[in-house]
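Appendix C reproduces, verbatim, an entry submitted by the partner laboratory led by Prof. M.T., so that reviewers can inspect both the input and the predicted structure.
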Amino acid sequence: MKLNNLPSEFQEALPILEKIKSAGFDAYFVGGSVRDAILGRPIHDVDIATSSYPQETKQIFRRTVDVGIEHGTVLVLEGAHEYEVTTFRTEDVYVDFRRPSQVSFVRSLEEDLKRRDFTVNAFALDEKAQVIDLFDGLTDLSGKILRAVGVPSERFGEDALRIMRGFRFAAVLDFEIEPVTFAAMKETAPLLEKISIERIFIEFDKLLMACFWRKGLQFLIDSQAYQYLPCLTNQAENLQKLTSHLSDDFQFSSSEQAWAFLLIALEVKDVKDFCRKWKTSNDFMKSVHQLVEVWNFRLEKEYDKQTCYKYGKDKLILVEELRQSQDLVVDFERILDLDAHLTIHDKHEIVVNGGHLIKEFGMKPGPDLGRILNAIEFAIVDGHLENEQEAILDFVKEKGHL
């Protein structure tokens, strides 16, 4: 098969291939970018594989960086672009179900492609836009099938993260998983406990944000792989709520919204503990926690100025989207109206701060000063106090806060 229209991302990288080939080596575009080009999907990272060994690659190009040279990868800097150029390689026994104990460089493209995860990711593309397909990936691509390269149980035993990657690919591409491949995923799922949770989080997050996330999630549930993920053991019924409680066409607007609803469906009581076990960033944890708080607030009450100020318009809208997808009463206009009528959106907008009060009234830093500042902040938000210095100082005097 030949690509009739070579994507611009590949065209820009063609000089890299040509320089390597002019030096007497083979070079190809490989991996997911080739798959996406065949499918007409947007191209992201352009990866290049070559028969030249890392030191040989470095001699070909003037500007390079050793980003993973022990694994055969050299970063080539060409103009304003950066390209990862990796030597054809084979891999020894995987000691931790994620990384090979040893990498051996080879000159054979076929040997390199044999170690790939799925047939639709095992394509190579030459400088003439000819697709090299050694594992019948084109047939799987046209049939929308995800099939492991070679023996499935070996591929997942080598790197158990490929299980989650498979679910993610199904969610992104709307592919079915070939039965033998799926059976191997189910069999090797316990190995997920050996994998870095940060890597699993990335794959699960991409799954939830994909267009066909329901399909990916269903594979996760049916395989029982969720049993080996933090806080998800024996949670099949609650996990199923993500598909049964949300409208069929619902797409998550953000990762924070997706994970917040996951925690709501799981009926998680300690959001922060859950996020810590998934090793999320503190900022992500805070956002998810706030969304769950807003969700619970909205079950009982309507939004008010204080809530809009505390959490921000965007978070209230994210929660309202979740409610809308479940045919619950929503009021987007109220959120916009509340936000429009807020005098301030952040306490840093207040014209008086602790330093002013210390200077004006001789106050000392501490809890009492903090309480006074909070009273000022909430009075302004509620519309009971103008955000003006004189008015605020009078407020402090009149309320007997001194």
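The chain has 20 helices and eleven strands. Additional entries are available on request from the coordinating office.
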